[in-house]
Amino acid sequence: MKAKDRHKQQPLEYLGNPENKFCTRYDMGTKVLGFKDNSTLYRHFTPNELSEIEVESLEIRRKKYSPEIAKVDLALLKKAQEGDVRAAKLCYERFEGWSEKMRNEITGDKVEAVEIRLVKFADEFSDQKREVTPAIEDKALAIEDSN
Questions:
Q1: Model confidence over 22-51: pLDDT tens digits?
Q2: Residue ranges making up the domain that contains 142
Q3: How many structural domains does the chain have?
Q4: Same domain? 8 vs 55
Q5: DSSP states of 73-124
Q6: Torsion sign across C-alpha atoms 66, 72, 74, 77
């Protein structure tokens, strides 16, 4: 194994471990690789090669902690199923790509922001009732009709 490959493997292993703090390039050279000064790091690697090492390390790190993220996702789904409206909203944002929409309605001299929230799922998860006043409902319908 060439010295360059050996030097590349050390930061990959160190940075790919979720238990280690993701370090700066200076620390990568001095602490991880054991170089006396940081300039030695740049004699072995170009900035592009260092970027590639960092990207590859992040991919390794993500693979190692993905089971933990799955546990968090399951806990979030459980809270949503138990009726937590905020958890349900976060589930839709995370898993379905849903997001709240904000549209502006311009009428004459006034600019009114009408916030339209997609809360169809709220009744399934909560006993809370959301009241929509006739004025807000009329504005929302006007915006939908104009599109």
A1: 888 898 889 888 998 888 888 889 999 999
A2: 99-146
A3: 2
A4: yes
A5: HHHHHHHHHTT-HHHHHHHHHHHH----EEEEEEETTEEEEEEE---TTHHH
A6: negative
